[in-house]
Amino acid sequence: MTRSGRARAWVAGYCAVLALIIVGPLAGSGYLLLRDAVSTPRPYLTDSALGLGAAAPRAVPQDALLATLSPLIDGGLLVKAILITALWAAGYGAAVLARELLAAPTPAQLVAATLALWNPFVAERLLQGHWSLLAGYAALPWTAVAASHIRRSMSGTGTLSPGGYAGTTPLAHHTAVSVEMSGGDVSDAPKAGSSTTDSGGATGSAGATDSGGATDSGGVGRGAGGARAVAGRFRGAGGAWAALVAGFAAAGLTPTGSLLAAVVGLALVGRRGFLPAVGLWIVTCAPWLTATALGSGAEPSDPAGVSAFAARAEPWLGTLGSLAGLGGIWNSEAVPTTRTTPLAFVGTALLLAIVALGVRAVWALGRDGRALLIIAAAAILLPALGATGPGLALGEWLVVHVPGAGLLRDTQKYVALAMPAYALCTAAACATVRTWARRFSTEPEVRGDTGTSAVAALFIALLILPLADLAWGVGGAMRPVHYPGGWEKVAERIDAPGDVAVLPTGMFRVFPYSGTAPVLDPAPRILPNDVLQTGELLVRGHAVTGEGNRARTVEEALIQGAPAGTLADLGVGWILVERTTPGPCGDSEKTLSTTELVYEDHNLALYRIPAPTLRDTATPTQRRISTTAHLLWACTLIGSLTAATLTQRSGTRRGTHKSPSA
Fold first, then answer.
1. Residues 6+ positions from 279 with CB-CB distance below 8 Å
2. What is the DSSP string of 154-181?
3. 512 preceded by a cis bond (ω within 30 of 0)
């Protein structure tokens, strides 16, 4: 293995270790069941899983993916695998971003990876159960690298790596930063117009352009050398496009993740690639865009959710400070213990100090660095403004009048967009501190990589220690649970059409086996028929109404003790009673007395309602359209990942180029 390969293996291994330290308890048997995270052995491909239920398609195509693969692989293992892969990819992607845009050496890459993995955003979203959102978070640095390379390859301002989509930094903007990061002296940098080597091995002027066709980005003139360089640029652009689509599709596991990746990718891809990138992004959005269009009968989101889900000020920080420190989630219970102590202020101050040390270098990168910094600033300032009176009023207006604006109500999750810029800044900060130390030190200068390693080790410690309870399942809060065997037996008994109503009413449960935190009812992801849910949430003591009108009518009928015939007319064929969780049941015993008991144990009881009037939420045509959209997304994801991987391996075998950090 080459030196470059060993360095990359070390970075990848480091990210894997950090990811496993974070989710360690989940390595045991059992299922993730924590607040919004619900993994089950065998979810089913219901209308709700396709996004065709009464509620907004917030978990599309996530639920359909799990339902499709779970007959082959246990659903709990799938969720764990996706979560661990996402965390690893977030860390390693940040390292790759620092390597490709800054030519950062291995120690600085480790700092960038640490920032991406070990921060309040990751901790709070894990505690909230947003494992699939972290897939979109993980795609951001990869999307940035791919989009940056597309812009440079199409404009002829950068060379191509063997991978075809991880290009080097443009010399005119980045040489000084790259030399400084690798421990050299800026005076040793080649000047514009000096001889360089392009991806085909030809030499030419670094400052030349391809305008008029006289020379290419590597300075190669007309003829065979120029043709080879142009061909290499198109090969690289093809790999970059494949990587960009893969980033969009992977982030598109949820609608929010898709929006996050779109912001980064479209901001960096450049004018020439913008419209094609928009088109490809829309293709990766097919599942949730289709579900939104087909679900025209769904109610708009409750405007009360805007204030309920607004960013929250953490102790000693205020809303702006909390967001700048990558924290501030709306749920005060979904935070690590350290974020409720003065360590929240200390950790945020240290994080922002390290980031500030690298801002100047990242801004000097040119368009890529500046775009990411502007995105980061907007991702912090806009959610902070959204938590003010005028911001809340604007958000409520959007939710009422703009279809799909409910995706914007949890504004804090968009602070994820700050991660790529923060990762670059923390990596660049290593060079800044080394420069200061060399300038003011009277001791003989130590070797470049040794000095960088010492600074990187200090930064890693300063990032990790104030948030030490992110380790081991965020202080043990994330742990696998085991469902009672009755769940499987209930699923087997549901062998006839009809939706399922659930008692007690409400969306959340507190089971003896699930811990003290409320969890989403697992019934919709365990039972083969659609489970009626109102989508109503209780946030900060206020009820946020969901979109499930028929479910709300069914719940009211159950609470009032309506006869089984009334529920049958509403399309209900089954009633599941979850006996070990608190919640309102009202006079539902009157209803249950008019039904047929088909299963019961200590935890669960299942009742059948004969001859329900089927009230399908979707038609066969809508199901076919939605299924086709999901297949398109899956094929796009698999195809783009395969194309990007093959392009990288092909380029590596040719050995045409080594990145500056090699």
1. none
2. HHT-S---TTSSSPPPPHHHHHHHHHHH
3. no
